[in-house]
Amino acid sequence: MKIYFSGSIRGGREDAELYAQIIEELKQYGEVLTEHIGQMDLQEEEITDEQIHNQDMAWLTASDIIIAEVTVPSLGVGYEIGRGLEMKKPIYCFHRTEKTSAMISGCKEIETYKYDQKEEIKALFSKLFQEQ
């Protein structure tokens, strides 16, 4: 299974360490195409915005499932989710806040999960991937 993991980059990197831990957990269920999201010292300057967009769209197209951590609001994550919906990809969003964007939680094609601790997300992944 090819997994597209989405998390904030330019919107804020305060959860980068958490993203790395989520990506490690996701690896037991398949290939994570966007492993770089968890890098603490992510360097984007080496490629253009157009190259970033085109590479991410190629990975999104190749993926079987989209997992997004949406606690930190991000235009890019929202864009990826929207494009994933157009592609009819299964999309699962996770957040630690009491509420997330109504555009995410109000969309019946997106499954959203609130969690408080990292261990909770592991249990949610186990259940989710058993159903796939």
From TrEMBL:
It comes from the Bacteria. PANTHER family: 2'-DEOXYNUCLEOSIDE 5'-PHOSPHATE N-HYDROLASE 1 (PTHR15364). Monomer and homodimer. This is Putative 2'-deoxynucleoside 5'-phosphate N-hydrolase 1. GO terms for biological process: deoxyribonucleoside monophosphate catabolic process; nucleoside metabolic process; purine nucleotide metabolic process. Keywords: Glycosidase, Hydrolase, Nucleotide metabolism, Transferase. Its EC number is 3.2.2.-. Substrate binds at residues 4-10, 19, 80, 101-103. Pfam families: Nuc_deoxyrib_tr. It is an enzyme of class 3 (hydrolase). Catalyzes the cleavage of the N-glycosidic bond of deoxyribonucleoside 5'-monophosphates to yield deoxyribose 5-phosphate and a purine or pyrimidine base. Belongs to the 2'-deoxynucleoside 5'-phosphate N-hydrolase 1 family. One of its GO terms (molecular function) is transferase activity. It catalyses: a pyrimidine 2'-deoxyribonucleoside 5'-phosphate + H2O = a pyrimidine nucleobase + 2-deoxy-D-ribose 5-phosphate; 5-hydroxymethyl-dUMP + H2O = 5-hydroxymethyluracil + 2-deoxy-D-ribose 5-phosphate; a purine 2'-deoxyribonucleoside 5'-phosphate + H2O = a purine nucleobase + 2-deoxy-D-ribose 5-phosphate.
